[in-house]
Structures are given as C-alpha cells and as structure tokens.
Amino acid sequence: MTRFGAVEAGGTKFVCGVGTGPDDLVTTTIPTTIPEETLERVAAFFNGQSVGAIGIGSFGPVDLNPSSAKYGYITSTPKDGWRDTDLVGAVKRALGVPVALDTDVNAAALGEARWGAAKGTRNCIYMTVGTGVGGGAIVEGSLAHGTAHPEMGHMRLPHDFEADPFPGCCPFHRDCLEGLASGFAIQQRWGVAGDALPLDHAAWRLESRYLALAVANLACVLSPEVVILGGGVMMKDGLLGRITSEVSELLNGYIALPSIVMPALGARSGVLGALALAARLTCLNG
Amino acid sequence: MTRFGAVEAGGTKFVCGVGTGPDDLVTTTIPTTIPEETLERVAAFFNGQSVGAIGIGSFGPVDLNPSSAKYGYITSTPKDGWRDTDLVGAVKRALGVPVALDTDVNAAALGEARWGAAKGTRNCIYMTVGTGVGGGAIVEGSLAHGTAHPEMGHMRLPHDFEADPFPGCCPFHRDCLEGLASGFAIQQRWGVAGDALPLDHAAWRLESRYLALAVANLACVLSPEVVILGGGVMMKDGLLGRITSEVSELLNGYIALPSIVMPALGARSGVLGALALAARLTCLNG
Q1: Three-state SS for B205?
Q2: Touching check for A142 and chain B: CB below 8 Å?
Q3: What is the interface pTM, i.e. ipTM, of the complex?
Q4: What residues does each domain of chain A span?
C-alpha cells in the first residue's frame, strides 16, 4: 500500500505525518517560526521517507486557483514573515513528489468525510470554533472552493444588542459570526477565556445561540447530512447538545436537521485530511 | 442535433418547451389546475414531438433522492391537490423517454450557467425574490442538493427592530430572509405591493439591506463567481445597484465580491434550465 505524506500547516505548529490512514500514521510536530526554517524542518522530516505524494492543509489565505501565478502560496496573511510564501513550491522542490494543497478546514472536512464523523456522506461541513471561526464544505462529493475559498466565519447573524451589548471584535465586519462567537470574542466580551466560565454562565447561552444560527444557515444553504463542530471552544462539555437543540428549534421542522457532531478523528482531522488530499491526488489510494 | 423537452413546473403555470437551446426553443404555457388535467396537457404538448429526454424544474418540495420510494414526487406542498404527486413517473409513463428532475431554482441556475449570466462559471447561485424567496447553487460544477435541497430563503439575518418593526411573515421562522424580504413580506409590511412603492420609499432601503445581507452570507459560504438575482421583486429599477454596493460594504474587501447580476435569460432561465437538465441526462448534447 502506497504511503503518503501529510502536513497540517498552522500558525503555531506544523503537524507532519506519514502513513496510509488513521491506524497507520506517524506524526511529528514542528513549531511555526519563519518560513525558511519551518519548511526546512518539514522537508527534513519527509526526506528519505518514501511517499507517493504530500497533501497540505494550511492556514490562509491560500491561493488555490491552479491557473494563478501564485497557486500554492500563502498570500495576504497577517502572520509575521509568512505573507507570499510559496508553500507548495517549497515542498515540491525539496522532495520531488506531487503536492496537493487545500485550506486547513477543507482538509479537516475531507479527513472526517473519509475516515471520521462524516464517513460515506457526499455533503458535509466542518466548522472550527477556536481563536477564529472557519469552515470547509464538501458538496456533492467535491471540496467547495468557489473563486477563492469559503469564509464561513464571516457570515452575518441576528445580533440582539439588548441580550448582548458586545459590539463584536472582527476587524473587518465587527459582529459577524467570528466577531461574536470566536474564542477571542468570548475573551473580549467577558475578560476571561471561555474555559474559565461554567456552562450556566450567560456566555454559553450566547455562544450556543450564535453557533446554532450559523449551523441553521448552513443547513438552509447546503442541506448537509453532517455538520462537524471542532476547535477549542467546542471542548466545553454540554455545548454541543445545546447547539443541537437550538438548531432544531430554529429549523422548526421545515428543513432537515443535519446530524451535528464533534470530530471523530479528534485533533487529527486536519492531518488525516491532508493525507487524504495526497491520496486523492495520486488516485493510487483514494 | 437532438431536441429535448423542458418543463418549468410552477404553482400557477407550467411552461413547456421543445428545442436545443435559447435560439431554438418553442414553448407553450399551461395553467396549473389539478395534477391529472395539468399533466395530461403537458403530455399532449410533447406527444408526437421527437425528444431525446425531458427535463423538469419544479416547485417543491420535491424528492430528489434517487434511492427514495418517492423519487420524482412533489411531496409536502401546501398547494391544493398537488401533495404527493408523482411528476417524473407521470411524464415518463406518458411519453416513454428519460426524465430528469430538479428544483425550479436549481434549473434556473443551470440555465444561466449554461447559456446566460453565469456562462462558463463552475460556482454560481441563482436566487429568486418573488412571492417567496428561493435559491439554487452550482458548486464546483455540480448542482447542490445535499440531503434534500437548499432552502436559502429561510436563512436568518440581522433584523434591526427599530428600523423595521415588522415581525416577519414566514409561518415557520417568522423573520427569516423570506419572512422579511419576499414580495409577500413587502405587501404585508406596507399594505401595498412593492411595485406601487417608489424607489425612495423606505421599503426599498430595507429590501436592499436584507438581500445584500443574504448575498454576502452566500458569498461567505460558497465564494461564488456570480450571483444571479431574479424574480418579480428584482424588477424594481435601481434595486440591483443598491444591493451590489451594500454587499461590497458588507464584505469590506475581505471576501471576494461576486458579480451580482439579473438573469440574462430573463423569464426563460427556468425552462432553459429544464432543457439543460434533459441534455445533461442523456449526455447526447451536454
């Protein structure tokens, strides 16, 4: 069985892996420093390993347009030193194998669709709720890109200023989903991190409301079979159940309630999704 | 060149057509009465015409799941007499040709993507704003269905009750997009139909706001190249321009502004989309 390489490229760490799937995957973690150093260490990890292709799920924005001159680049990121980094080119040059790239959230969606909570579905959404909020989608079996890539975290939702006077903290849109419901928003609104707040705190009533509105809207637009909610904020015990019952109320029987679940692959959705990207690329294994 | 048949099945009329495309299409209009009579007249129109397949774009909800026992049926519609009508079966039995079915809005999206305002794009959305609000999407070249089909008209949007005390008129969700921005909502809010209200009336400030929020959310979720806005409400001169500039403000340079346009096929998006469904089905012509 052909082995593949996987890179989950994040703003604080790069998780690299080699293997064939969830039961056969060796990973290593490399801290994200400057691009040259980080990518050299990525190359060193894969060097000498025989892999058919490497898949990368990356933080962004990334240029995914195959006909663009900057295809495979991390583009206008605010992350120090990483603007205009040729991620695909660097890996390809260092290792001489085919390289597939997608967003970190699309990779996670693909990982969960191949081996995890959305196995066997052709329509699913992966939303991560951490410092920021992002989302990836598989629609009729294809990863959705559009002209750039989805930015689900920036959709606008009802915001009841009486119940929640916090103005929102998105620098671009103020009270979009990310501006109201990200981990950063919780921290800004209450002055402490979410994990310091008990489930009966008002913070979680707002949080489940906003995330339920987001999931309901995604259900209206894409009618997914499964919506996977990952990221640090979702680790709060009891939050998932609250969101599910609020989504059910919001859809009110008119629209099919998707199955709303946590990632079955845990913290490995992204790196396994990157592995699936590599496998799909070569068509040897996927 | 193989000719195809097309049916745009609506709640007030069925538009039937035979031809090969926009420059070669003969249509007839049949009023929607009871299913038996209406479908008999549809069959009579096609009888003796030599068509390779028939495509239907229908009002709904329709069952589009090929493995369902009720595939091809109009299901739980409130329209008198039409509940549980076997649309595909009736046409297939009467005419003995392959029949393709999709929603009216997906058909319109496909028509515009094949011959109209979204020609050549792989990611576009068609939204109709009439008595109700509906939407169809093409994602990475495929019509999006999901587990049922999109119900974009029912997404939740910010509703500023001070600027707009109208509670919304959707029987399922009250102030969802359809409940706030459909032609019926305009009529209910102001006591007159939209076309009686001049463009400087407050009605259109609200209307452009809600539709811009909807388009911005769709841009966040799907990153479409083109968003086509059709339906009676969109006939208001000047409305499209207002929506476009509000979407641009809402996205604020962070997310690619899609091209926001009216249907290039005018009132024929639906019937031509149904024709494209037929052509795709046989793969003889599409």
Answers
A1: helix
A2: yes
A3: 0.95
A4: 4-104+266-285, 117-261
